[in-house]
Design goal:
Layout (H helix, E strand, L loop, with lengths): L5 E6 L2 H12 L2 E6 L4 E5 L5 E6 L9 E5 L3 H10 L4 E8 L2 E7 L5 E5 L1 H7 L1
Parallel strand pairs: 1-4, 5-8
Antiparallel strand pairs: 2-3, 3-4, 6-7, 7-8
């Protein structure tokens, strides 16, 4: 068996990013090491996203794709809390979903299985 266990990304402010992912996407803080400016957040499938503060700055180099229960509802809830989306739920080149960026500029895709199947 091979399974992706964790992903590490550099961020400008690990605390801000930790809070953003926890508060907006519901990731669970697995651990936080302030002395190392590192936090680990876990999704519902046990994938861990490591955030580590990088002194040289950040050049986002990957896209993070999150499956949600209902992309339309997730969009409405986040937009109502002031989260800015680049694209609301719609048919995109990768399928049906929404696009936004985290505080460091990482592109995030949100999608759900039903909408992808029916509208993608």
């Amino acid at each position: 068996m091979i399974r992706l266990d964790h992903l590490s990304i550099p961020v400008r402010d690990y605390g801000r990013s930790r809070d953003w992912y926890a508060n907006h996407l519901g990731l669970k803080v697995e651990f936080d090491i302030a002395a190392r400016k590192t936090a680990a957040l876990q999704d519902d499938a046990d994938l861990t996203l490591f955030l580590f503060e990088h002194p040289e700055g950040v050049a986002p180099s990957c896209t993070l794709t999150f499956q949600v229960n209902d992309v339309e509802l997730q969009y409405k809830e986040l937009a109502a809390r002031g989260v800015v989306f680049e694209k609301p739920p719609q048919k995109l080149m990768w399928g049906y979903g929404a696009e936004l960026r985290d505080p460091d500029g990482y592109l995030i895709y949100l999608w759900d299985e039903k909408s992808m199947r029916e509208k993608g």
